[in-house]
Amino acid sequence: MKSPLPHKLLAAVLLATAALPLHAESPEDKGLAISREAEKRNDGYGDSTSTMQMILRNKAGAESKREIRNKTLEVPGDGDKSLIIFDEPRDVAGTALLTFSHKSDDDDRWLYLPAVKRVKRIASNNKSGPFMGSEFAFEDLGSQEPEKYTYQWIKDEKYDGKDCFVFERYPVDRNSGYTRQIVWMDKAEYRPLKIEFYDRKQSLLKTLTFAGYKQYLGKFWRADTLDVVNHQTGKSTTLKFSNFKFKAGLDERDFDQSALQAAQ
After folding, report:
1. Separation CA 19–CA 21 (nearest Å)
2. Which of 32, 179, 193, 247 counts the most CB atoms within 10 A of its CB?
3. Residue 36 is inside which H or E element, if any?
4. Are 56 and 64 in contact (CB under 8 A)?
């Protein structure tokens, strides 16, 4: 007579397997799902304008300030378009950056330099360079589409008193200046609160924090202060936003290359 033990073991295995969810969410899937939900919550803003003060600090803490105008346009099915125009001080007035973000292709960037009255295209292999002497790289300034990264959820924890998802994202583009970024995103509204950036040598390069979130049109959240600290140089940059306006009536004509010079 055969022992019934194998049948009991098999029954136990089947029972344990049945108790598992059919589609257990992996850390990779969870990280991507968080990013997609954040994108979904920002869908439909249409277009916006704002003003911004950029404060540059060197290692010794000495400051210089710049006054900037911003325009953005939502492009259904693709990344956003943005136009950044410097108004002050005089030595950078008229400088403008036009960015066409894309979900999967390389972003397109053009920089207008009024001193030479020339539009310069920023090559993809230069996108990790600093923007106008700040601690923001060109690649930081476009919309951060979920398709630009792969993901790994790490843990949940509190940051600045808020319950957050913590996940890593890895740039798909080999020309990125980063190997990975660690993101703290609040669970309530899916807003980024902190991002740590790691360079090509896997060393911590800089930390970006977001503060002063306000809600517009009952749906869209925008931070009024962004601070980035470069841990390797001791330099930092602060962006202070104001005068947000949504549904301003912008269209594609406000974001073609001729708009770079017309925006002066």
Report:
1. 7
2. 32
3. helix 27-42
4. yes
> What is the pLDDT tens value at each position of the chain, 264 positions in all?
444 445 444 444 444 444 444 345 899 999 999 999 999 999 999 999 999 999 999 999 999 999 999 999 999 989 999 999 999 999 999 999 999 999 888 899 999 999 888 899 998 888 899 999 999 999 998 889 999 999 999 999 999 999 999 999 999 998 999 999 999 999 999 999 999 999 999 999 999 999 999 999 999 999 999 999 999 999 999 999 999 999 999 999 999 877 777 655
User: What separation in angstroms does the CA of 12 have from each of 2, 15, 16, 220?
Assistant: 18, 5, 6, 50
Task: Quote the CA–CA distance of 26 and 151 in Å, as a whole number.
Answer: 10
| Strand stretches in the chain, DSSP E | 47-57, 63-73, 81-88, 96-100, 108-113, 118-121, 149-159, 162-171, 180-186, 192-198, 204-211, 214-216, 220-222, 225-230, 236-246
Q: Which residues contact 157 (CB under 8 A, 6 or more apart)?
A: 164, 166, 184
Tell how far CA 234 is from the center of its chain: 22
Are 144 and 197 spatial neighbours (Cβ–Cβ below 8 Å)?
no
Answer positive or negative: Cα dihedral of 153, 200, 132, 85. Answer: negative
- What CA–CA distance (Å, rounded) separates 205 from 229? 9
Q: Is the entire prediction scored with pTM above 0.85?
A: yes
The answer as to CATH 3.40.1550.10 being correct for domain 27-262 is no
Where along the chain do its domains lie?
27-262
Between strands 96-100 and 108-113, the pairing is antiparallel
Biggest CA pair distance of the chain = 96
d(CA 62, CA 264): 29
Take residue 163 and report the two structure tokens written for it.
Answer: 């319950």
